[in-house]
Amino acid sequence: MSGLRARQKADRHRRIIEAAADLFREAGYEGAKIETIAAQAEVSIGTIYNYYENKGDILGAIVSMEVNEVLNAGRGVVANPPANVGDALDTLLGIYIEHSLHYLSKEMWRQAMAISTQLPDSPFGQAYTGLDRALTEQISALIARLQEIGLARGDIDGPALGELIFNNMNMMFIEFVKRDEARIAELRAAIRRQNRILVAAIAV
Amino acid sequence: MSGLRARQKADRHRRIIEAAADLFREAGYEGAKIETIAAQAEVSIGTIYNYYENKGDILGAIVSMEVNEVLNAGRGVVANPPANVGDALDTLLGIYIEHSLHYLSKEMWRQAMAISTQLPDSPFGQAYTGLDRALTEQISALIARLQEIGLARGDIDGPALGELIFNNMNMMFIEFVKRDEARIAELRAAIRRQNRILVAAIAV
DNA sequence: CACAAAAACAGAATTGACTCAATTTTAGAA
DNA sequence: TTCTAAAATTGAGTCAATTCTGTTTTTGTG
User: Fold this and answer.
1) Is the pTM of this model over 0.90?
2) Per the CATH hierarchy, to which homologous superfamily does domain B1-51 belong?
3) Which of A114, A160, A170 sits opposite B114 (nearest CB)?
4) A194 interfaces chain B, CB cutoff of 8 Å
5) Is A131 in contact with A137 (CB distance < 8 Å)?
6) For A55-202, which CATH class?
């Protein structure tokens, strides 16, 4: 039952993603033609569209892998947070940001974000919304953890705060990927400055 | 010197924008073909591209008008803010949000936002970044005003707070336009809930 | 008023994402 | 092993944004 067909399918998925990732890196998202991806993956154009609804979904598959890695890395911080609110937030958001350009270029991020708002109901659009939610929840989980430990005030609206922090970081990240010359260190510093207001309000 | 050519130019700009706005409303952004816009504006396809770099820039011109109206409306609130921090913020952000769907549909917003991150260096991409900045600064100006009046603590980092509030609202607005069934009232309520944390931290 | 240069216009040609009807491959029943 | 239905693949064709090149209009000068 797990026969040939399933194996070929998985293999073709892999070949398409690999070819696309290579070409996106080399030529950029716009520069990578479906025709070229198909050729490099040794499948036809039609097959690509059998596996992915549109070009954006191919990029989406790559972005999802990246974000899932980030979520994974974040778990460690939530389980074992630094001993004060400011550092805990900075560490978690730092992981998100530092990881972000490992596999994806700024251009790829720009495209991915654009597609996710342009086609919110496409497979990737929905997946992306889910990833955002997962990140938001991880931040909320960190806050809940800090409240448990007694590092953050218990009367704070944790979920709302998590959204606030994620939304702000995400918007800052969008502006960051829009400017090629923007540096990660500056991004982190700016976010720290903004979060300082919150940290002051919620630290015990 | 201000002769025929300049007048024709202004007239063609107007005709293109009007035709595009009509068609975007009727058929949606994707559904509106450049060919049709050109026909309705009584110019050729080539001429449209002489006036706008790409389809997105046409939408951009419409969005810019809308946001400028919103900025204008916001000035009144900054000049004469409600007598407490929570209401002042709610009133200003309320104006932004309530105005937002006057001329633009959610689909048009989705496209506009997507384009602004996809092509940050296109004329519209840059304009959009400028508009975001102007909105952020207006929020910061409101905070400064509240600090002057003595309604907000003077030791708060106003500019950073302005960014935080704008970024959060903007991200919430993006999620709002991504879901057709989302309602303005719910959006405002969610933002109020998030801002409550900030209001508690900065109100005198 | 002519006329040359500059600016604007026009629309056919190009390009690249995506579709679709025909063909090939696989699964599994007889 | 043979056969048939279902699943998957293929690539030529479609569609719409954008480009490009030749033509027309405007401007300012002699």
Assistant:
1) yes
2) Homeodomain-like (1.10.10.60)
3) A114
4) yes
5) no
6) mainly alpha
